[in-house]
Amino acid sequence: xxxxxxxxxxxxxxxxxxxxxxxxxxxxxxxxxxxxxxxxxxxxxxxxxxxxxxxxxxxxxxxxxxxxxxxxxxxxxxxxxxxxxxxxxxxxxxxxxxxxxxxxxxxxxxxxxxxxxxxxxxxxxxxxxxxxxxxxxxxxxxxxxxxxxxxxxxxxxxxxxxxxxxxxxxxxxxxxxxxxxxxxxxxxxxxxxxxxxxxxxxxxxxxxxxxxxxxxxxxxxxxxxxxxxxxxxxxxxxxxxxxxxxxxxxxxxxxxxxxxxxxxxxxxxxxxxxxxxxxxxxxxxxxxxxxxxxxxxxxxxxxxxxxxxxxxxxxxxxxxxxxxxxxxxxxxxxxxxxxxxxxxxxxxxxxxxxxxxxxxxxxxxxxxxxxxxxxxxxxxxxxxxxxxxxxxxxxxxxxxxxxxxxxxxxxxxxxxxxxxxxxxxxxxxxxxxxxxxxxxxxxxxxxxxxxxxxxxxxxxxxxxxxxxxxxxxxxxxxxxxxxxxxxxxxxxxxxxxxxxxxxxxxxxxxxxxxxxxxxxxxxxxxxxxxxxxxxxxxxxxxxxxxxxxxxxxxxxxxxxxxxxxxxxxxxxxxxxxxxxxxxxxxxxxxxxxxxxxxxxxxxxxxxxxxxxxxxxxxxxxxxxxxxxxxxxxxxxxxxxxxxxxxxxxxxxxxxxxxxxxxxxxxxxxxxxxxxxxxxxxxxxxxxxxxxxxxxxxxxxxxxxxxxxxxxxxxxxxxxxxxxxxxxxxxxxxxxxxxxxxxxxxxxxxxxxxxxxxxxxxxxxxxxxxxxxxxxxxxxxxxxxxxxxxxxxxxxxxxxxxxxxxxxxxxxxxxxxxx
Length: 818
Fold this sequence. Notes:
By secondary structure, this protein is of the alpha+beta class. The chain folds into five domains: 19-142, Substrate Binding Domain Of Dnak, Chain:A, Domain 2; 150-321, C2 domain (Immunoglobulin-like, Sandwich), CATH 2.60.40; 332-515, Sandwich (Immunoglobulin-like); 522-661, no CATH class; 691-809. Strand 4 and strand 5 (184-185) form a beta hairpin. The protein is globular and about 105 Å long. Residues 140-151 and 321-326 have low confidence and may be disordered. GO terms for molecular function: guanyl-nucleotide exchange factor activity; small GTPase binding. InterPro entries: ARM-type_fold (IPR016024), C2_DOCK-type_domain (IPR027007), C2_domain_sf (IPR035892), DOCK (IPR026791), DOCK1_C2 (IPR047026), DOCK_N (IPR032376), DOCK_N_sub1 (IPR042455), TPR_DOCK (IPR056372).
């Protein structure tokens, strides 16, 4: 096998770099390093550590092959990358190897392209995470249970060990969580394709059939009952008893059976043994036209299942708390085929209806690989439903995830085609599409398709006509749309619509939009797209405060951007200032609500990283002052009270805006204050945090020229920071932070700054003291590291900055002492 690679350098300096994902290269390097240590552990008879390393190596090998396969969906690949990096970091710690520092996506940080402060903070975070993992290995599982009620989001880990069931054909094993009281699924499916041989079709996943059900909120914890449901769909002939397979239609999805287990105690953390293997008995369908949903409810209601030894073996890991931030970007639409009612037409019995789901744009072009039948499976271009044999009113309750690029949503629609499937291959080939239903993902007012159930109109026409999007796209898609156009729900007054005819058949779907970019609220949409119709801006700002809080927090950053853009683009006018201020107070009040308190970090992150309105402080201050001055007036008390409750964040916006407005004014003031407090050893932690933030900002490439700013810090703070480091003991919690600040200053100083230092260096005793203090500090830091020995990158960064500093400082003119 030849591996693609890139060759850098020539001759002795030639380096061959595999053309692979950086994470794959890291895993490969790690495995080679660990394998040597593993052998040494065997030779030295360290059995316990030998077994631990073996398990970690096997895990990395398995995960590496999964990533290389290229078959994982993006969300599952992202989760797997997190597991891989966590395992590598944990293994490096217990083997006393170097600590690896990463960015938020798990990529190794390049020290040459990363600021000193960012590197230091990354080391702190990585070290803390590994330490927490070490503690988790020792802690009592009961400690986690008490946190459940307060956590906004948690996850449940499931490991499928085996499927003991005689099917005789290929099958799909679909696992999901189910609320038996509401008779509805509360998660998407985890899909495993099972072969007729009794093994996974992807043999590489034989001992790795694991799933994590994520984003389960506190609402799910409060459910009275939660069941784990495993559905089996047979893929093959219409009827298993038919033996002459050559003449029979194949590839049909047919109901086979279910397995159900109550996992309420597991979800609530009441199960002690997480490694326990559970047997879930299998209940086959009584007849091949039994609805899987009906069988699920029957099994839940029954006390015992006559499983005859057939079932699933699984293990569950009690929920852990998800780290997904409230501001994560997501754009998924879940589509559920609910039920239908189809006339038998010219046939003597009811049809064997198969629904095909696909996504098309307005030009009739199909969007490829946008439908996910379940986590763990590849994206497909069309999804085919289960077929219920000769059933007039099938009930499917099958859910798929549709993931469309945000820019394509407004041009896309879901298309459902209906076809009768015959058990005989010769007859089946002649069966054409007999009807069609569709629904656009974007409504006429620009909002997204509403969550909930939709009664779609079923159209009939010639099969070729139904394949042409222009034939039906101008027609109403739901019965509500039909009524809005002044026609009855049956459409009797408009039966013939060009090439299409409204059928007596009915079809119902359900949709759920999980998106941070697509809103279903027309008032919020009006604000987000305020530039398209500025005449409605006054109304849109007022209406924002009536929008459901859940919808607002989903679009928190976009909403805040819109508010401050309105303020900045009307800087010469005060027309919208009060309304924008009130809207801002409304949003801050929402986040203060316990229901949305987990969005607090999102607001903090927005202020620190995304907020950019440099003149907002003047307008916010002016409106706030107006409210305070008018406190005694009637009708303003309520709004003033709300503003006072939001005062913390109002001032954070004001301060951040002022900082952005004029760093040139603020920096000298801040450095003077820092120097004042550092010289008196006051508020050292706050001083260090502020100086770190300043240096972090000045390292960025998009903040304009920083030469003058670095010079101000060098002149006012370099010596003070050096003295602070010298005066601190090695056991101080802040010593590492101050050394990072000192290293950052030295690293951000250029030749210009050293030249300026040489030029201004005088003949005073204080100058001699500065040199002596600096060299003594360098010597002490090199002789006795401040940072742990596994912080190799941080130690090297510190030594490099000090070496560069020494090289330049020895060029200073000689100084005479008096």
